[in-house]
């Protein structure tokens, strides 16, 4: 079956965060008024939420479940769910998680918020690599934990772990780092960590008795031919590596609210289950099963389409803004672009607000990623190519007007 990723799906009136929630999410803390919606509407390239239709096999599974007429209390009693997930992991990563390690969460962000107080005390710290997915810091803040930044090294757009800085932070007894949030693949830079990089990061944490919480939500969205390596597979016998996976990014199911959290430590898992019940939505259950068992071809096609979007962006920047620093990332559908040589963003309004007001494009500026992201913007490329092209044209005009360029 050939899927149509050029389709413009109308999301108006669906209470979508992307379409309806941008004011509060992006500008709620801004002192002035939120930007006005332009006459021709915003181009939405911000939150990591695909603009593509959810795969038809998933939608059909939900319709079929609705035909059962009752949406009562639901838990996973049929072991088929675990077999489907295990087979998916084995096909795609060559690794299976132990069935007994799996617990459930209404998403990975809630899981991070739950895990921090389970694994740390108030005087402890959380380590993150920056730039960072902002909810990592918020998960620490939420429980009153210090969050320690370890900046990634940026070599002309190629981002790498500063292992010396990481070990120095972990060795600092005053910091009391007890958990490390690993973003695997990394958001926002798009790095798919190599086996040797994962081995070094995790070994450092284990050496210092630090929990590793690996957010692998983008694990299926690497470039075609790039393989994801689950962090837990590096040290399969160690129980201090917790893995978070979900169908939400891969199959555009962010509203499905069912993530698998693999907690191999029996005592931590028991405490999780004591505090958090495992009732789930019956619709979420069938959606996950259909996604992992019937959508391999859809994923192959969507990855190819996103690959082409990245090449389109690279060609566009090379033609119109060659001073922009951009490397096609190994993973995610998020483009991390250094625009610092195009416009002095320090003299502009906050970057996100600038592009909303002057380009009619909603995107996320580097300041939204904790630290070490100044001068960058992040674009969501999981969208129809016509939408991407229009967004880039608008961004280009705003940049050119700001710099006084006549391009």
Top keywords for this entry?
single chain, 407 residues, alpha/beta, Aspartate Aminotransferase, domain 1, Aspartate Aminotransferase, domain 2, 2 domains, globular
Overview of this structure, please?
38% of the residues lie in helices and 15% in strands. The chain has a 7-stranded mixed sheet, sandwiched between helices. Strands 11-14-13 form a 3-stranded antiparallel sheet, with no helix packed on it. Helix 4 runs parallel beside helix 10. It is globular, with a radius of gyration of 21 Å. The two termini are 42 Å apart.
Q: What topology does this entry show?
A:
Elements: H1 17-20, H2 22-27, E1 43-44, H3 56-66, H4 80-93, E2 102-105, H5 108-119, E3 125-130, H6 134-142, E4 146-151, E5 153-155, E6 158-160, H7 163-171, E7 177-183, H8 195-207, E8 211-215, E9 241-246, E10 259-262, H9 266-275, H10 282-294, H11 296-320, E11 334-338, H12 351-359, E12 361-362, E13 364-365, E14 376-380, H13 385-403
Helix pairs in contact: 3-10, 4-10, 5-6, 7-8, 11-13
Structure classification? alpha/beta
- Compute the number of structural domains: 2
CATH topology of the largest domain: Aspartate Aminotransferase, domain 2
Reported CATH architecture of the largest domain: 3-Layer(aba) Sandwich
- Largest sheet features: 7 strands, mixed
Principal-axis shape equals: globular
Mean of all residue-level pLDDT scores: 95
Helical run tally: 13
Give the C-alpha Rg.
21 Å
CATH superfamily of the largest domain: Type I PLP-dependent aspartate aminotransferase-like (Major domain)
What's the helix-strand series?
A: HHEHHEHEHEEEHEHEEEHHHEHEEEH
Main-sheet strand order equals: 2-10-9-8-7-3-4
């Amino acid at each position: 079956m050939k899927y149509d990723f050029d389709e413009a799906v109308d999301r108006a009136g669906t209470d979508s965060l992307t379409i309806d929630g941008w004011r509060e999410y992006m500008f709620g803390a801004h002192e002035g008024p939120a930007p006005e919606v332009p006459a021709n509407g915003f181009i939405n390239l911000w939150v990591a939420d695909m603009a593509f239709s959810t795969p038809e096999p998933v939608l059909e599974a939900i319709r079929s479940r609705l035909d059962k007429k009752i949406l009562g209390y639901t838990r996973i009693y049929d072991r088929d769910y675990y077999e489907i997930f295990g087979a998916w992991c084995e096909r795609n990563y060559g690794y299976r998680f132990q069935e007994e390690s799996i617990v459930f969460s209404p998403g990975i962000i809630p899981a991070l918020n739950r895990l921090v107080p389970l694994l740390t005390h108030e005087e402890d710290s959380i380590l993150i690599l920056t730039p960072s997915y902002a909810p990592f810091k918020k998960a620490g803040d939420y429980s009153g934990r210090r969050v320690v930044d370890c900046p990634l090294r940026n070599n002309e757009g190629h981002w790498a772990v500063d292992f010396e800085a990481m070990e120095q932070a972990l060795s600092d007894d005053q910091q009391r780092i007890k958990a490390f949030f690993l973003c695997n693949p990394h958001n926002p830079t798009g790095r798919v960590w190599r086996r040797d990089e994962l081995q070094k990061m995790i070994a450092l944490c284990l050496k210092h008795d630090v929990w590793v919480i690996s957010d692998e939500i983008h694990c299926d969205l690497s470039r075609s031919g790039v393989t994801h390596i689950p962090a837990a597979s590096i040290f399969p016998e160690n129980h201090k590596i917790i893995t978070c996976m979900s169908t939400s990014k891969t199959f555009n199911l962010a509203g499905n609210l069912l993530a698998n959290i693999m907690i191999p430590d029996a005592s931590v898992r028991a405490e999780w289950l004591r505090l958090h019940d495992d009732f789930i939505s019956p619709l979420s259950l069938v959606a996950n099963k259909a996604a992992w068992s019937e959508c391999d071809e859809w994923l192959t096609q969507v990855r190819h389409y996103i690959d082409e979007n990245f090449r389109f962006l690279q060609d566009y920047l090379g033609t119109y803004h060659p001073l922009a620093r951009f490397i096609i990332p190994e993973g995610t559908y998020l483009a991390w672009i250094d625009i610092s040589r195009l416009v002095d963003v320090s003299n502009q309004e906050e970057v996100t607000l600038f592009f909303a007001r002057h380009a009619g494009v909603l995107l996320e500026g580097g300041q939204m990623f904790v630290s070490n992201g100044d001068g960058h913007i992040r674009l969501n490329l999981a969208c129809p190519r016509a939408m991407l092209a229009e967004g880039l044209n608008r961004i280009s005009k705003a940049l050119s007007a700001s710099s006084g360029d006549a391009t």
